[in-house]
Specification:
heterodimer; A: alpha/beta; Peroxisomal Thiolase, Chain A, domain 1; 2 domains; 6-stranded mixed sheet; 19% strand; B: alpha/beta; two-stranded parallel ribbon; 15 strands; 34% helix; globular
Chain lengths: 401, 386
């Protein structure tokens, strides 16, 4: 059971802002302002106001927190609050975080000054704050979440994997509740790296479009409280949606390119539906990985057609990355939050920037206009990470058996 | 469903060399793997690091893309190949989609990240050939490609318990039936920037580190990879595999602590350690020579065990995934009935039975690795004789 969600994104500081942005079709992509960069691309989906708390942490510790740490704290706090988790439940709950760059942005700053001789010593706190684990630790210490904690890094599927892992711990009876978070911040390393690979669209990402040239990087955090059904019922929790299946599989093919036949992506989607005991006919909505790179689009279209068959042409598909960018480690969690809202409220999130669909998507109901509604029972959300790490989540509306 | 899981293969890449035998023999002989650093210029004579001997990528990488892998990935691949060979598992013995991989690393590819940033700051552009190696899960990707692992794969980053956390993930993957075999372990490398940072922060020992020492003055930097092959007991028996030990991964947890520092409440830590440590015949501690870390661990252990304790970071140095190497040693220790000694220790800081000087020969039914990290993370692994 998903009983709480939280979100920080280019669409705003919380879930209500995200939801309003989905409904209005707001565009979170704008000029890159966080740092100077002269390359092929100059756009990003930045979080305008970095969360400042207050959190129950010493001021000295808060000063050392990176942007992703702060995103995670804000999203985690919102999810916990919305779920109404009390201190006792929190202290036993699992905390699984997806991350890829940690405090890299802050480390880059410190490293550059140190290399330039501007500071005689490289600040220990800055570099040690780079650790991917720090966001989880900060959330754990601020909100008293002292159960099993893990930070996983499988690039763009990190937080989808974190959600799957959290669900495993609940299904196996290890914990009654878990907080799954994905968090990531813009930094020079990823921006210049993706640009060097020619993976960034110079203007903005246009998932599924004939003229798509790449992705647009974003940042933020998504958080979900997952809870054992009996535990949620016993405390009278509101159920926002249910996670009914998940699948993970690896391409074992290439460090940055997807397998040309979508080997791992196919296996992950099939496994998620099998675990959910749902046939392709039951799927009502696809929140695609939809990065906007030609390679991803081609493979994803093929994977969806192969598994969903004709059903694909009768259901809406959208890419939320067109609204708040590719948030890397946060993508799986933010898109799971979007999918949860879609199921709960019957909202269909739009795909921005899409003008003329690529032939690979011919006949598919690609949602371009904002404000569409549809009653949805089951939805899938896929995340494919660099290195060939694929995760698909299957979600169902809270009241659908 | 939670079937018993056993360790059937051990692979270690350490400053002792590229075999688990060299690692184990060095530890048991009470030798230190630490020496003055050669990879970059040292600024402090007498300061020691654990540096893994160089190895050509082409000796281990067989795929075309694998030729470009970074040093961290190469150490991970080396340990994985050694572990598979030790387990007697042929490349195709377990179908790729039934094989799982879990690797832990605290900081990943430090050296090439610095190289990448240097060029970015100097010339304003990123290096497209280097960027794939910057992605934190590069070792996971390269190893999965090299070994054809297509099941569930996960990279974990958990500071000083990165290795233990990845092994625990692997135990779950196999116990739950999601995979038939899992390569699980950790890797971290010695990079100049991190070394300088720790140096500037006063965290490094002047000479040899002294875990649990009353006069401990810091840690030694190090690097290495440790990987275990995990299988269900029934499967291992059915194929006639040699079993090193049974492994259990108690649920991880954390205790109140500063976000960037070590926990301070020994009683709270002891309460978390007690279920796994209480009846263990040996404790493989995480003490590293860091005074604040060692003090809290010693105090907590004193409350929960009279068993012999050893801290191998005195011989290996301290790095994020060192716990994976400690786990490899603990698995060997249970099979051999031998506890390697803690090096560098003069007078112990606490009333603990720390194994010092020479290895202790004693029948062991069980050994527990007590992983402890900044931010209050606790991750234990338990090995039982089979």
């Amino acid at each position: 059971m998903i009983t709480g969600v939280g979100a920080v994104s280019a669409l705003g500081p919380d879930v209500p802002a995200l939801r309003a942005g989905l409904v209005a079709g707001r565009d979170g992509i704008g000029p890159l302002a966080l740092f100077a960069y002269r390359g092929r691309a100059d756009t990003a989906a930045e979080v305008a106001d970095v969360p400042r708390g207050p959190w129950d942490l010493p001021p000295a510790a808060v000063r050392r927190l990176s942007r992703p740490d702060r995103f995670a704290l804000a999203a985690g706090e919102e999810a916990i609050r919305e779920a109404g988790l009390d201190a006792g439940t929190r202290s036993e709950a699992a905390l699984i975080v997806g991350a890829t760059t940690g405090g890299m942005f802050e480390t880059e700053e410190a490293y550059r000054r140190w290399r330039a001789g501007a500071t005689p010593r490289l600040a220990v706190s800055r570099v040690l704050g780079t650790s991917l684990a720090t966001s989880g630790v900060a959330v754990s210490q601020a909100f008293g979440v002292f159960g099993p904690q893990e930070t996983v890094a499988t690039a763009c599927s990190s937080s989808a994997l974190a959600i799957a892992r959290a669900a495993e711990l609940i299904v196996r009876g290890s914990v009654a509740a878990a907080l799954a978070i994905g968090t990531d911040g813009l930094c020079r390393l990823t921006y210049a790296g993706f640009d060097a690979l020619q993976a960034l669209d110079p203007e903005r990402c246009r998932p599924f479009d004939r003229e798509r040239h790449g992705l647009t990087l974003g940042e933020g955090a998504g958080a979900l409280v997952l809870e054992d059904a009996d535990h949620a019922r016993a405390r009278g929790a509101r159920v926002l949606a249910r996670l009914v299946g998940w699948g993970t599989a690896t391409d074992a093919h290439h460090p940055t390119a997807p397998h040309p036949d979508g080997r791992g992506a196919l296996a992950a989607l099939r496994a998620a539906l099998a675990m959910a005991h749902r046939s392709p006919e039951a799927v009502d909505y696809v929140n695609a990985h939809g990065t906007g790179t030609p390679q991803n689009d081609a493979v994803e279209a093929m994977v969806l057609r192969t598994v969903l068959g004709e059903r694909l042409e009768r259901i809406p598909v959208s890419s939320s990355k067109s609204q708040f960018g590719h948030t890397l480690a946060a993508a799986g969690a933010l898109e799971a939050v979007v999918t949860t809202l879609a199921l709960r409220d019957g909202i269909l999130p739009p795909t921005l920037g899409l003008r003329a669909p690529d032939p690979a998507w011919a006949g598919v109901d690609l949602v371009t206009e904002a404000g569409r509604h549809a009653a949805l029972g089951v939805a899938v959300s896929s995340s494919y990470g660099f290195g060939g790490h694929n995760v698909t989540l299957a979600l169902a509306r809270g009241d659908v058996a | 469903m939670s079937a018993p899981v056993v360790v059937t293969g051990i692979g270690v890449v350490s400053p002792f060399g590229w075999t688990a035998e060299a690692f184990w023999d060095g530890l048991v002989a009470g030798r230190s793997a630490l020496a003055p650093v050669r990879r970059f210029a040292s600024r402090a004579p007498g300061r020691l690091s654990g540096e893994v001997p160089a190895r050509a990528t082409g000796e281990l990488a067989r795929s075309p893309v694998g030729r470009r892998m970074d040093w961290t990935s190469l150490m991970a691949l080396g340990a994985c190949r050694l572990a598979l060979a030790d387990a007697g598992l042929a490349a195709d013995a377990v179908p790729g989609e039934r094989m799982s991989l879990a690797l832990g690393s605290a900081y990943g590819n430090l050296q090439e990240t610095a190289t990448f940033l240097d060029r970015l700051f100097a010339r304003g552009i990123g290096n497209p050939l280097l960027f794939p190696n910057m992605v934190f899960n590069a070792p996971l990707s390269y190893v999965s490609i090299e070994l054809g692992i297509r099941g569930e794969t996960s990279m974990l980053s958990m500071l000083e318990v990165s290795g233990e956390a990845a092994i625990a993930w692997g135990v779950d993957a196999v116990a739950s039936g999601r995979a038939d075999a899992c390569l699980a372990g950790g890797v971290d490398e010695l990079g100049e920037v991190l070394h300088r940072v720790l140096e500037a922060g006063g965290e490094l020992a002047a000479g040899a580190p002294r875990p649990f020492g009353a006069d401990a003055d810091g840690v030694a930097t190090g690097e290495g990879a440790g990987v275990l092959v995990l299988e269900r007991l029934d499967d291992a028996r059915a194929r006639g595999a040699r079993i090193h030990a049974r492994i259990r991964a108690p649920l991880g947890c954390s205790v109140p602590a500063p976000v960037h520092g070590w926990p301070r409440d020994a009683a709270a830590l002891a309460a978390r350690l007690v279920p796994a440590v209480r009846d263990a015949d040996a404790v493989f501690a995480s003490a590293s020579g860091s005074p604040s870390h060692d003090a809290i661990e010693a105090e907590a252990l004193m409350r929960v065990t009279h068993a012999p304790v050893t801290a191998l970071r005195g011989a290996l140095g301290d790095f994020g995934a060192a716990g994976a190497l400690v786990a490899a040693a603990a698995a060997r220790a249970v099979a051999a009935g031998t506890i390697p000694p803690t090096l560098g220790l003069g007078a112990p800081r606490a009333a603990l039975d720390v194994v010092r000087g020479t290895a202790r020969q004693t029948p062991l039914r069980s050994a527990v690795v007590t992983g402890l990290a900044r931010g209050g993370l606790v991750r234990m692994l338990r090995f039982d004789a089979v």
